[in-house]
Q: What sequence folds into this?
DNA sequence: TCGATCCTGTAG
DNA sequence: CTACAGGATCGA
């Protein structure tokens, strides 16, 4: 169920656990895991390749190979990727067996994730629809305003639109709005400059803290992150008191997704 | 821009 | 049992 912080965690974990490894064999344990590509393509292009580096774009984990190809792992709702020493976990969909021993397993119970491979030269096209990276030092209030403020749609669903700003999912979009005291139903086009500034700052702060906390909480387990809801102020807390004003946290539906917020201190 | 949908696990 | 889940995509 990863958003940017969990994806970032997995990348850093792989950097520690699997730096410089070579893929000896690729096993696609569920055909649909490679999306519109054939499993044979992934096997052909990744087998025998050393992993030059791990990276991240939006919520995807990237394995940069020495043959100028990149494996893109879209985590979906339940995807995790990490190195295991022995047998892969039960819901592993793709296994990269390593020459050094062990396996990089893509473990994805709900099977919404995808593992695809692309020539590096094609990556700009592959990622062409993705918006700004919020943790880039270049990400500015101006970027946020440019990508969101033309729409009259409610701000919360817009924050989930990966063609505008990437990395926020249902949890951290709600958290960023709470932190900046913006009503999730407020039309994006009506936010004031001061609100945009606060929202920008909140997005960066919330994601940065989530990355840190995820790493902190799980830094002694070599596997996947969990319990990263510790710092959530609104997500999953409907009916409980707001940590700022003690008002009751509400749960509503927007664009088919649940939105948690405080109707008192996030009022317009 | 919305609703449905792809699947499986888990909470109520 | 039903409802719901942190994502992404597709057609209307």
A:
């Amino acid at each position: 169920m990863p958003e940017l912080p969990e994806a970032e965690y997995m990348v850093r974990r792989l950097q520690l656990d699997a730096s410089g490894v070579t893929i000896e064999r690729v096993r696609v344990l569920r055909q649909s895991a490679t999306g519109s590509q054939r499993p044979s393509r992934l096997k052909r292009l990744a087998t025998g390749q050393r992993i030059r580096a791990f990276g991240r774009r939006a919520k995807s984990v990237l394995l940069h190979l020495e043959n100028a190809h990149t494996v893109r792992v879209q985590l979906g709702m339940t995807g995790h990727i990490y190195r295991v020493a022995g047998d892969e976990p039960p819901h592993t969909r793709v296994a990269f067996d390593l020459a050094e021993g062990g396996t990089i397993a893509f473990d994805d119970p709900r099977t919404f994730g995808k593992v695809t491979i692309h020539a590096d030269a094609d990556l700009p096209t592959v990622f062409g629809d993705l918006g700004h990276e919020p943790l880039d030092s270049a990400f500015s209030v101006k970027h946020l305003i440019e990508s969101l403020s033309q729409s009259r749609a409610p701000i919360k669903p817009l924050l989930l639109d990966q063609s505008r700003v990437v990395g926020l999912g249902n949890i951290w979009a709600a958290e960023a709005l709470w932190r900046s005291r913006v009503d999730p139903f407020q039309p994006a086009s009506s936010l004031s400059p001061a609100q945009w500034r606060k929202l920008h700052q909140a997005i960066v702060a919330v994601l940065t803290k989530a990355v840190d906390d995820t790493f902190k909480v799980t830094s002694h387990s070599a596997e996947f992150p969990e319990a990263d809801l510790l710092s959530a102020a609104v997500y999953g807390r409907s009916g409980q008191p707001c940590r700022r004003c003690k008002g009751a946290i509400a749960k509503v539906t927007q664009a088919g997704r649940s939105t948690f917020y405080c109707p008192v201190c996030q009022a317009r």
